[in-house]
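Example (one chain per record):
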Amino acid sequence: MTLIQFPVRHRQTVAPVLALMDLQVEYVAEGRAFYIEQKDACLRNCERLLSAARHRGLPVAHFRQLLPGPYFNEFSALSGWIEDFRPLPSEAVYQRDVPSAYRNEIFRTFMDAMDDPLVLLAGLTSERACLSTVIDAVHLGHRIAFVEDASASPGFGGRSAHESHAVARDLVAEFCEVITTDEAVERFTRADPGRWRAMGG
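Predicted structure:
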């Protein structure tokens, strides 16, 4: 009988990963189709999360969408980072052309290589990038928590931006834990920054 030796996977448990979705100029450029009017509180809380993660030396993953059309085009300055959210050289950047973060194969492979991974998810927008990422994470058996007050949504379906974000939050809550920025910062405070490895972008 012939035995086939499959490669051994060396798995590693790491600290929580802060995933910041699409903090791009397109969403804050007034007059543009994807402009989010009620964004200020979300961005302030994203800054708190980013500052706390950096202070603790925890892994940060920045995501951005790049599309072939007039919006989020890779050659447009409007697809660049909002000024306060430019990644550091030590932080991973993942690009994709569909809403879910898991569309990026490098990120998906990295997360799949960890034991019991935990993602703290924030950024734009709650009804598209965040919701689709949460659903994919659940399908893959990854733990994920959505930081509800560090995300926002444009209005859709005749709803205001606030109402739309509330709908998205309720949908996300069907799949994962929903937490606040204060709760996320507390988790960063308790996390062991030594238990992670560099992330590929």
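Caption: The chain has a mean pLDDT of 89.
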